[in-house]
Amino acid sequence: MAKKEYSFYPGCSSQKGASSSNYLNSVNTMCEELDITLNHIPDWNCCSASIGYAGGGELPRLALSARNIALSEEHNPGQEIVATCAACWLATRESSERLNEDNSLMAEANEALAEAGLKLKNETPIKHMVEVLIEDLGYEEIGSKVKKPLEGIKIAGYVGCQTNRPFGIAGESFENPKYLDKLVETMGADPVENYDKKVQCCGGALAFSEPDKSQNMIKGIIEAAYDGGADMIVTPCPVCQMNVEVYQDQINATHGTKFKMPVVYYSTLMSVAYGRSAKDSALDGQVIPAKQLQEIADK
Amino acid sequence: MTELNAAMVERYRSNFLKEVEANVEEGEWVKMCMQCGVCAGSCPLGNAWEHTPQKIFMMVRAGEREAVLNSDAMWMCTSCYNCIARCPRGLPITHIMHGLAHYAKRMGLAPKEQPTAKFAQLFWDNLVKKGRVNELKLGISLYFMNGFSEGIKTSLKMKDIGLGMLKTKRMSPMEMLGGHGVKDSAGFQKMLKKAQELEDKRISGSTD
Predict the structure, then answer these.
(1) Does the pLDDT value for residue A284 go beyond 90?
(2) Mind listing the pLDDT tens digit for each residue in A118-137?
(3) Hey, how many other C-beta atoms are within 10 angstroms of the C-beta on A33?
């Protein structure tokens, strides 16, 4: 297979000492195995996610993504942009589409960018890493690298919101996307069939500002995974991962549940299946350890 | 009433729909709503809102300016995009709600003690400072957004989560000392300043 190369937008939460640094570590390992080169967009900035709207108006927010795309077009010309964070992907792709549809906004965005010596052509496709795996490589290719099939592990594929709506993965439905289940199967594990809360919202950023309401939703997501017999949950989104993993003790205290459900990234799952060490697979980033994956990685 | 708000009231008189169409992000879509209620039924926090998007859109058309801009509804949006995915008319509902929230804030009419309104502003202030989010500072400013004593209480409640994140290196005390940011800080700030100027010019309330 020809080596693939992308212009990479890692996003704030993936940085050293940030909440999804473990995601980036496992993505790097996964990409090594798949012979994918990620060329970081130099000096990228925050996309303002979906919660920047209080202080940030339309044009200032668009300018943030415009700067990233312009930097990518200047330094990584001809390369598609790929993001691992759902919110980064969504904000960047939405901004790109909005600017393409509206000439006056595009002109104003370029006027703002000129202040930083940049110019936006806006000709670059913007992808989520999952699209790279499923659409650019395909199940056969990503399955061919499996050295240690994850046999006997049952996994609930929690797709969440922003990797799924409004863009999603080609050929998949919004209400019941199957790609994460197929990916679990490709790694040799068993997907939870008909996982009820597959596309349920975890509260997103409102887990911070409306903890009770969000934790009610998170409770349902974990409960449904247990109901389906899951040993762990897998997700493609950093906000989903953190929200569903780290509040389990608080939910237990409030609701009298006994949750202790590991929540891993697809990239951790794949790195373990590809035969890489626990550290390379970022299993040391689990607040709730994924013991079964640890055992396979240590074998 | 803020000066801008007064100017807008004067300028649009009783035509709030026109005001929204001209000044709110994606506001030109509001009149396309056919009041089917799919958005209301699809919202994960639908039971927590004062008004569903469907109601908000009708209120905009009915000219209920204060009630719309004072509503907590827009601030309950989790950005899950269920409403966008399901709206039979293809309205970008999530974006309109964000746009209305921002406009309410700009007019000085957003609810004062709304936690998401506060947090969303903290998030923006945090990211524009250095061009990237500083999660540690954001977390601390969130805990203390309702004053010192509540801040201590929240910090204690969140202590174990913090320790878990520290232990797994998903949080770093070093972020207090500067932390991550863009290198071209000057260019970044100039760009944002210009974008803000252009945005302000568009929503100025003047009649020119």
Answers:
(1) yes
(2) 999 999 999 999 999 999 99
(3) 18
Give me the pLDDT at residue B204, please. Answer: 79
Q: How far is CA A136 from the centre of its chain?
A: 17
Question: What b/e string do you get for A200-234 counting C-beta neighbours within 10 Å, with b at 16 or more?
Answer: bbbbbbbbbbbbebbbbbbbebbbbbbebebbbbb
**Residue corresponding to tokens 């010596």:** A117
Chain A residues touching residue B125 (CB < 8 angstroms):
55
Classify residue B173 by its DSSP letter: G
- Phi first, then psi, for residue A5 (nearest 5°) are -135, 135
Q: Which neighbouring-strand residues pair with A8?
A: A40, A82
Mean pLDDT of all residues in A82-88 = 98
Summarize pLDDT for A62-79 with one digit per residue, the tens.
999 999 999 999 999 999
Residues of chain B scoring pLDDT < 50: 208
Domain boundaries, chain B: 3-112, 115-197
Cα distances (angstroms) measured from residue B161 to each of A175, A243, B78, B170, B173: 32, 11, 22, 11, 14
> Would you say how long chain B is, in residues?
208
d(C-alpha A116, C-alpha A88), whole Å: 21
The third-level CATH classification (topology) of the domain covering B3-112 is Fumarate Reductase Iron-sulfur Protein; Chain B, domain 2 (1.10.1060)
| B180 in contact with A, Cβ within 8 Å | yes
What are the pLDDT digits (tens) for A221-270? 999 999 999 999 999 999 999 999 999 999 999 999 999 999 999 999 99
The Cα–Cα gap between B205 and A206 comes to 32
For tokens 């790109």, the residue is: A96
Tell me the domains of chain A and their CATH numbers. Answer: 4-129 (1.20.1050.140), 148-298 (3.40.50.11810)
Backbone Cα Rg of chain B: 20
Listed by number, the residues of chain B in 66-125 with a beta carbon closer than 8 Å to a beta carbon of chain A are: 76, 78-82, 84-86, 94, 98-99, 101-102, 105-106, 110, 115-121, 123-125
Q: What are phi and psi of A115, to 5 degrees?
A: -60, -25
Interface ipTM > 0.85:
yes
